[in-house]
Amino acid sequence: MGDDNFFLLFETATGFCLFQRLFGDEIGEQTPEYQDSLADASKFKKLFKLKVFTPFPSAEVALDSINSVSEGVVNEFLQAFLTSNLPKASNKVSVAVSSQDLGSAISELGYRSFTSTQVQEFLRGIRGHLTSFIKALKPGDLEKAQLGLSHSYSRSKVKFNVNRVDNMIIQSINLLDQTDKDLNTFAMRCKEWYSWHFPELTKVAKDNVEFARLARIIQSKENLSEEDLPKLTEITEDDERSQQVLDAARASMGQSVSELDLLNIMKFADRVIALADYRARLHGYLVEKMHNVAPNLTALVGEQVGARLISGAGSLTNLAKMPASTVQILGAEKALFRALKARTNTPKYGLIFQSSFIGKAAAKNKGRISRYLANKCSFASRIDAFSDKATSKFGERLKTQVEERLAFFDSGVTPPKNLDVMKEVVDELTSDGFYEKEKSAKKRHAAAEEIQKSSKKAKKSKKEESESEEEEEKPKKSKKAKKSKKEESESEEEEEKPKKDKKKAKKSKKEESDSEEEEEEKPKKSKKSKK
User: Fold this and answer.
1) Among the CATH numbers 3.30.420.220, 3.40.30.10, 3.30.420.40, 1.20.1250.10, which is that of 6-158?
2) What per-residue confidence (pLDDT) applies to 265?
3) Which CATH architecture describes the domain 167-290?
4) What is the pTM of this model?
């Protein structure tokens, strides 16, 4: 049984195919014979026929179409393909597709779109017999197109701009935190190990890395002399502290160590110094990446806090999609769920607590300033994620807004509105040539207004034409109505005529019968009178 309103959409690497079902039986589709026919090309051609095949005009259109199909969106090329090859949109026209999301998008065009396990079987059969339907495809053409499109699709899904990859920021901040932990552990071990030989050095050099650098220069305290003071001054950057180190070495109570033990201590001190140098280089790399990827967020809260926010959210795009309330408690999820479970007060801040603004605020204003700071972080992350050109002007103004809010909590001076501040930034960037000039923007707006006006005029002309046609049809309709009324009245009169004739005939019969009865009664009465 054929079905002229059942179509099947199939996507290939070369273009879109639209198949029409020639034979279909819902009961017979479950039989083994019907399932075997899907594997046979000659039998499968009796079930479906290729109505139209439209190849992609370019590789860009192919990539855009496949991206749209994977996301469940009908792009312009697919919409034009469907509307030009399918019948008029109605619920009677069925379009079978591979995914439910794409089916719901096609349903918005007015067609009945669906997917099922049987549709997947149909698509599997078409995929296996595609070369028999499209004779223009040579052996190997489809495989080459699939390989090229798959590479382009995978490349587009990784990241769009190599210089703005936020994944490197996530890895860098995690490595920086791990390096800080390891450096602290190694420096403490180096200090504890060398303190057996020179314990007084810990009072002069309180920094762990500085202690390792001084230990590497001093080595054996017995050999330290005034000739080593310039080397010590390079590390301590203070002549008095260098002299203190020399005096402490002369009066030290530490025990002497062998050359082998001292050699191992110096090797470990070299490792600590190398790790500290690597940590400094890694921090510089993180600062550079943050200024390239998220300049506004960096200007607002700093490199490390901004990088931790991006790492906590998973990516800069995820952070931009989060509401300000989620950004506020980002990093305090355990405390939040613990508070919800125990029905106690929820946390006021998470990772943004490391910002300097929270520390500057009074205890009663910490929650308020954290909420305000989270709002500004949300603004900055959205600007960084979705702007084509990178600038830190917005982040700098947002930072001044947070500082003005802190001053408002202390002094009560009302800060300017956010809308006015953002307008000032946009005007400043426009004057610097960062954005397009106002003339081009005005031209663009004027062109858009002209298009809107022309569309409105076209709609008005269509309405006027329809109204004039209706006015012309009105007298015709009135004439037809009058004619129909006349015809109805005449037909009613014709129907009433035989009824009237029958009534007249009955009346005449009654009159005749009455006259006959009177004539018969008259002689009877005369006879009675004679008697």
Assistant:
1) 3.30.420.220
2) 92
3) Orthogonal Bundle (1.10)
4) 0.58
